[in-house]
Design goal:
Length: 436
C-alpha cells in the first residue's frame, strides 16, 4: 500500500523510512502512518467529485483516527471534519481546525457537548432524535443563535457488512425512522423552530462496504424523502450527507472499488433521484478509506508456543489493546517480517497478543518466514479504528504514533508512560479508625 516498499537491506520501508530504524528509535509496538497516502486518499475523493461536476463536500470522520496532527492534515487538505464527542471536538479545536468546518454527530450528545459546540462556533449539527432536537433548539435560542442542522435518518438499507457495523437498517439506535414518518415529523418541528435552520438530511448505511447498490438504494429513499418534504413542508433539501463506509483492502480477499467508482455511482444515483435542477450539495464522510491502509503497526516478537499438530502461536508485545478488531469483528489482517521482508515464506503461525485473554489474537494463520524471537512483525492496514479504539486493558500502555513522509518521521503521539496509567488514580481518603 502507498509508499511501502522493501529496501536494499531487505527491510520494510514506509514513507522513505526504514521500519527497523523506526523500531530502534521509537520502540514497539508502534503505529506508523503514511502521511502521503492519507493525503492522496483525500485528494482522490475530491478529484472524483470534481469530475462528476456535482456540488459536494468531503468530510473526514474523526472516529477512525483522531490526533492533533491528523486534524491538521485534514485542515490542510481542505476537508470538513465530523466529530462525535467533546473529545474529538476538543482535539480538532486544539489543532486549530476552523470550527465552521466541523460538524457534530452522535445519538446522545450531552447538553454540555452541545453547549461547547455552539460556543466554539461549530458549523453544523447532525440531529439524531427528538430529544436532541428540542435540546439544541433551546440551547441555541438561549444564546440567540441559529444552529444549522441536518436530520439523520435510517433509510432502511442494509449494507452487506459485519452485523455490528451496519447502521442504515430500521432497527438501529441511530437517527429518525423513515418508514414510520418520524423524519417528516422531525423536519416539521425543525422548520418551526426559530433557532434552527434545517439544511437537509443524513444517512449512513454501514462500514467496510464493497458495493455501490446500498448507496444507490439509500439515495433513492433520500430523494423520495426530499420530494415529500418539498411538497408537504415546502422544504428545499440543500445538503444530502450520505455518510461514509467505503471499504478497504485488509487482505487479498477484500475487493473494494476505487474511490472514483463509489463517487460515480453516487453521482449517477443523485442525478437520477433528484433531477439535474434539484440536486443538493452531496456530502460524504469517509473515515476508514482515508486512513485505514495508511497505517502499519510494528511489533516485536517475543515468546512462541507450539500446540503439536494444531498450530504455532507467536506472541507480540501488543495485542487487543492496540488492535481490538480481530477479537471484536473477526477482522482479518496480513503481516510480514519487517526486518526480513525478502525472505521466503516458510511457516504458518497465529499471532497472539500479550494480554490475559484467549481471544487476544491479532491474526489467525499468517504465512511468514521462519519466525524468531526479536523479529519485527508489521501488521498492515491498521490506520483506522486501531489507535482510536485502543485501550489500557491489563494496564498495557498505548503505543506511540509516528507520521512518516519523504524519508522523515515525526512523533505525533508519545508512547504512554507507566505514570500516565496512574495519572488519574486517587487513593480514598479515609478517616483513621480507632485502634481496637
Ligand atoms: N459516518 C457515520 C455516521 C458513521 O457512523 C461512520 C462510522 C462513518 C461516517 C465512517 O465510516 P467509515 O468510512 O470509516 O466506514 N469500529 C468499527 C467501525 C465502526 C464505524 C462506525 N461508524 C471497525 O473497526 O470496523
Amino acid at each position: 500500500h502507498g509508499t511501502s516498499r522493501i529496501n536494499g537491506q531487505g527491510h520494510l520501508e514506509i514513507g522513505g523510512c526504514d521500519t527497523v530504524e523506526l523500531a530502534a528509535r521509537y520502540g514497539t509496538p508502534l503505529y506508523i502512518v503514511d502521511e502521503a497516502l492519507i493525503r492522496e486518499r483525500m485528494r482522490q475523493f475530491i478529484a472524483a467529485f470534481r469530475h462528476t461536476g456535482l456540488p459536494f463536500q468531503v468530510a473526514y470522520a474523526s472516529k477512525a483516527f483522531s490526533t492533533l496532527a491528523m486534524c491538521r492534515v485534514v485542515a490542510e487538505e481542505g476537508l470538513r471534519l465530523d466529530v462525535v464527542s467533546d473529545g474529538e471536538l476538543y482535539t480538532a479545536l486544539k489543532a486549530g481546525f476552523p470550527p465552521e468546518r466541523i460538524y457534530f454527530h452522535g445519538n446522545n450528545k450531552t447538553p454540555e457537548e452541545l453547549e461547547m459546540a455552539l460556543e466554539a462556533g461549530v458549523g453544523l449539527f447532525v440531529v439524531d432524535n427528538f430529544i436532541e432536537l428540542e435540546l439544541l433548539a433551546g440551547l441555541a435560542a438561549d444564546k440567540e443563535m441559529k444552529a444549522q442542522i441536518l436530520l439523520r435518518t435510517t433509510p432502511g438499507v442494509e449494507a452487506h457488512t459485519h452485523n455490528y457495523i451496519q447502521t442504515g437498517q430500521e432497527d438501529s439506535k441511530f437517527g429518525f425512522d423513515y418508514q414510520s414518518g418520524q423524519v417528516m415529523r422531525a423536519a416539521a418541528k425543525a422548520i418551526a423552530a426559530e433557532s434552527l435552520e434545517l439544511l437537509g438530511f443524513h444517512c449512513h448505511i454501514g462500514s467496510q462496504i464493497f458495493e455501490t447498490d446500498g448507496f444507490s438504494l439509500a439515495i433513492e429513499k433520500m430523494a423520495q424523502l426530499s420530494r415529500e418534504c418539498r411538497s408537504s413542508l415546502g422544504l428545499q433539501t440543500r445538503i444530502l450527507n450520505l455518510g461514509g463506509g467505503f471499504g478497504i483492502r485488509y487482505s487479498g480477499e477484500d475487493r473494494p472499488l476505487p474511490v472514483s467508482a463509489y463517487v460515480e455511482a453516487i453521482a449517477a444515483g443523485v442525478r437520477a433521484g433528484f433531477g439535474e435542477a434539484g440536486v443538493p450539495e452531496i456530502w460524504l464522510e469517509p473515515g476508514r478509506s482515508i486512513v485505514g491502509e495508511a497505517g502499519t503497526t510494528l511489533y516485536t516478537v517475543g515468546t512462541m508456543k507450539e500446540v503439536a499438530g494444531v498450530r504455532k502461536y507467536i506472541a507480540v508485545d501488543g495485542g487487543m489493546n492496540d488492535n481490538p478488531r480481530t477479537a471484536l469483528y473477526q477482522a482479518a489482517y496480513e503481516a510480514m517480517l519487517a526486518n526480513r521482508a525478502k525472505e521466503e515464506m516458510q511457516e504458518t503461525v497465529s499471532v497472539a497478543g500479550k494480554l490475559c485473554e484467549s481471544g487476544d489474537m491479532l491474526i489467525w494463520d499468517a504465512v511468514l518466514p521462519q519466525v524468531k524471537t526479536g523479529d519485527l512483525l508489521a501488521v498492515s492496514c491498521t490506520g483506522a479504528y486501531n489507535y482510536s479504539m485502543a485501550n489500557n486493558y491489563n494496564r498495557v500502555r498505548r503505543p506511540a504514533v509516528v507520521f512518516v513522509r519523504d524519508g522523515e518521521s515525526s512523533l505525533v503521539v508519545r508512547r504512554e508512560s507507566l505514570d500516565d496509567l496512574i495519572r488519574n488514580d486517587c487513593l480514598p481518603e479515609r478517616v483513621p479508625t480507632a485502634e481496637p
